[in-house]
Write a structure and sequence with these properties.
The protein is of the alpha+beta class and 87 residues long. The chain is built from 2 helices and 5 strands. Strands 2-1-3-4-5 form a 5-stranded antiparallel beta sheet, with helices on one face. Strand 4 and strand 5 form a beta hairpin. The relative contact order is 0.24.
């Protein structure tokens, strides 16, 4: 039985501003897709990107919930429980 993830309840729907990975830009690197950390409100690149900054940030910071920063996408992901929620 799949339990609901408590991290994905009441995910903040703050507006996402900007469209670049805050860690790739200083490196001069590019990304595939962008993810928005709901805790620190920063945008980082996805796991399909070269640097995988979003998952590295989650592992090092304990900020386990991201939202898609892609236009038109309304989902969130919990790294702790490997679960997704439509928002």
């Amino acid at each position: 039985m799949n339990k609901s993830c408590e991290h994905l309840t009441n995910v903040p729907m703050d507006p996402i501003e900007g469209y670049e990975c805050v860690e790739c830009v200083p490196l001069g690197d590019t990304w595939v897709h962008l993810r928005y950390c709901v805790d620190c409100k920063m945008i980082r690149c996805c796991d399909n990107s070269k640097n995988q900054h979003a998952s590295k940030h989650a592992a090092s910071s304990g900020h386990v919930v991201i939202r898609s920063a892609e236009p038109g996408e309304t989902w969130a992901w919990c790294y702790t429980h490997s679960q997704m929620a439509d928002l």
